[in-house]
Design goal:
Layout (H helix, E strand, L loop, with lengths): L3 H25 L2 H10 L7 E4 L4 E4 L4 H9 L4 H13 L8 E5 L5 H9 L4 E5 L3 H13 L6 E4 L2 E2 L4 E7 L17 E8 L1 H8 L6 E6 L5 H5 L3 H5 L4 E5 L1 H4 L1 H12 L4 E6 L2 E6 L10 E5 L2
Parallel strand pairs: 3-4, 3-9, 4-5, 6-8, 9-10
Antiparallel strand pairs: 1-2, 7-8, 10-13, 11-12, 11-13
Length: about 290
């Protein structure tokens, strides 16, 4: 004989779970809900994969960039859209050209550039082995193997090995410059840009844009890109005087001014066209596009 009380309890438990799950589903499909969910994921979850609409991305939920992708569905895709819009306005998008991406991270911007159709080929360079593993996964998962060549090294002015510091909270902040006492030192290969392009089978003459986000190593990387910069290939980078120091910033600005005369700086207060020699040698980080 069935116990009516047991059946009633089971019914109400199932009804409660259905209601609870429906509420949770609605909550976790909001920006706030996703923020709560990603913050609560423990260290046992090493990788997650999300559908971002026109592409998919795999990431570490412990990483700042991964958490942003989970919450917003992208990581600074608007920066890529803004950059491409500016290049179009200035007549600097060359059909059939290639993109050199220094600091590919896990492939967020790589995917955005590929989806834009602005470039025929992309060479994405990433030294952090954690990021590179996910970069390769994201290239494959989005069917970009024919378009994108991923290279696991740092871009510098020589070939060899380089001390590199892994940031465990924000993999995008890993750098040749130690920024925290908790950063883990490893050794990564470093290669000149010319050798990287040769390995990828890309003619330097085909490069139509250099996109660079390498956490303070920009002056060294630029020293191996003299041929590209002499052709005034548009160069977009994070510019960080605090990383370089005033003297090195002055030297860096002088080196850049030997190749480019005009740039577009993206400050917190807004965009500003300026002469390269007028770039500030102190202050906060900002993005800059070297135009001509």
């Amino acid at each position: 004989m069935f116990d009516a009380k047991i059946l009633t309890r089971k019914y109400w438990k199932r009804a409660f779970r259905r209601k609870r799950d429906a509420i949770a589903t609605r909550l976790f499909d909001t920006r706030l809900g996703r923020d709560i969910l990603i913050s609560a994921i423990g260290p046992r979850v090493k990788t997650m994969r999300v559908d971002c609409g026109d592409h998919v991305l795999s990431f570490s939920p412990a990483d700042y960039i991964g958490r942003k992708v989970f919450r917003k569905g992208h990581f600074e895709r608007d920066h890529v859209d803004r950059l491409l819009s500016v290049l179009r306005e200035h007549g600097l998008l060359r059909k059939g050209s290639a993109l050199l991406e220094l600091g590919g991270n896990i492939g967020t911007q790589t995917c955005y550039f590929a989806l834009s159709g602005a470039y025929h080929r992309i060479v994405s360079v990433e030294p952090d082995p954690r990021n590179f593993r996910l970069l390769a996964v994201n290239i494959a998962d989005n069917g970009l193997q024919e378009m994108v060549s991923a290279v696991n090294c740092a871009a510098g002015d020589r070939e060899g090995q380089l001390d590199f510091y892994l940031n465990h909270k924000n993999h995008g902040k890993s750098s040749v410059l130690r920024q925290s006492a908790t950063d883990e030192k490893i050794s990564v290969p470093v290669r000149p840009v010319g050798d990287i392009l040769l390995q990828a089978g890309v003619d330097p003459a085909d490069i139509g844009l250099i996109w660079m986000d390498i956490e303070g190593y920009e002056p060294v990387a630029c020293r191996s890109m003299g041929a590209l910069m002499a052709r005034k290939v548009p160069l977009y980078m994070e510019f960080t005087p605090a990383f370089y120091g005033k003297d090195q910033t002055r030297d860096f600005v002088a080196d850049l001014a030997r190749h480019y005369s005009e740039c577009l700086a993206f400050f917190e207060s807004g965009e500003r066209i300026m002469k390269v020699v007028e770039l500030p040698v102190a202050g906060e980080q900002f993005d800059v596009l070297f135009l001509r």
